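quick q for whoever's on today - can somebody do inverse folding on this one?? i tried earlier but teh output was garbage lol. tokens:
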């Protein structure tokens, strides 16, 4: 039963990431985003996976952890891209 609740927790956390990814793609800005926050989330998920392996409790829940890690990683990459895009106008202004 604990695995069911862990899966529900992961799904509840994970449901927001597709919306963040879509927003990052549309907005093309990193304003309001925190790279440190996204890295902390990834580390937390990785620790959850490691905990599963250490306890020998390797179940379907790991697939949900990996899905969440993938989504947060995609959003992190988009945030890095958007930070670079945010700096582009500054470089253009410096030339004038």
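ok took a stab at it. sequence:
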């Amino acid at each position: 039963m604990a695995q069911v609740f862990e899966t529900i927790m992961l799904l509840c956390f994970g449901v927001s990431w597709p919306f963040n990814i879509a927003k990052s793609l549309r907005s093309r800005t990193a304003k309001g985003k925190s790279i440190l926050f996204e890295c902390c989330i990834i580390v937390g998920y990785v620790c959850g996976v490691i905990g599963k392996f250490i306890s020998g409790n390797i179940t379907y829940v790991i697939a949900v952890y990996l899905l969440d890690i993938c989504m947060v990683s995609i959003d992190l990459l988009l945030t890095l891209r958007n930070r670079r895009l945010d700096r582009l106008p500054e470089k253009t202004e410096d030339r004038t």
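fwiw Helices lie at 2-14, 17-27, 35-55, 61-95. also The mean pLDDT is 92. so keep that in mind when u check it
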